[in-house]
Design brief:
Number of domains: 1
Radius of gyration: 26 Å
Distance between the termini: 73 Å
Order of helices and strands: HHEEHHHHHH
Structural class: mainly alpha
Oligomer: single chain
Strand order of the largest sheet: 1-2
Helix content: 55-70%
Number of helices: 8
Largest sheet: 2 strands, antiparallel
């Protein structure tokens, strides 16, 4: 098959145009993916900021992280001890009969578990992946093994029951995913 010069030039121009279009597409796709990565990073940083700046979540984190500590809530000082979790996070038929301190503790844990439901919603919506939540693995680990870390299995039982009773599904799903990646020996959810 002999091609005359104009046909050959036309064919070479079409091939070059196709290669150029492919290169332009690949470059644009790469730029798009970089943009998506930056957007994702901004979302994650925003979530971390939200987690760190919510006073109720901060309070729950302190109670999870510490065995005994003075906490200040709305200008009121509370001397927290682990056994306060046993009474504050109990799950009676009706949510009545809680002291002011117990109500503060419950509100803090509600905010903590609700926050993780928000994370789960982002994961379920395909906006984020579980691996994007690496910043929060510390908290997953503590909740998974809180009875061991606080040396009182009753605390593990009351928190597990609280999560189940009040149907913190998003938190449970994230913990299940965490267990697949790093087993939590004490978790009984």
């Amino acid at each position: 098959m002999d091609l005359d010069a104009p046909t050959l030039i036309n064919l070479l121009l079409q091939v070059a145009g196709g290669i150029g279009a492919l290169i332009a597409f690949l470059f644009s796709y790469r730029q798009y993916k970089k943009g998506q990565t930056w957007r994702k990073a901004r979302v994650i940083l925003s979530l971390i900021d939200s987690f760190e700046q919510d006073k109720r979540i901060e309070l729950a984190c302190e109670m999870i992280d510490w065995d005994e500590r003075d906490l200040v809530v709305n200008g009121k000082r509370i001397h927290f001890k682990n056994d306060m979790l046993l009474t504050a996070l109990r799950t009676p038929k009706m949510d009545t009969g809680f002291s002011e301190e117990e109500t503060i503790i419950r509100d803090a844990f509600d905010a903590f578990f609700d926050f993780f439901h928000k994370l789960y919603s982002f994961q379920e919506g395909g906006l984020l992946e579980f691996s994007d939540f690496v910043y929060f693995y510390y908290w997953f680990e503590l909740i998974c093994n809180i009875g061991k870390y606080k040396q009182d299995e009753r605390i593990q039982q009351v928190i597990d029951n609280y999560i189940d009773t009040y149907n913190f599904i998003g938190f449970k799903k994230l913990i299940e995913e965490y267990k697949k990646r790093k087993p939590c020996a004490a978790l009984r959810l």
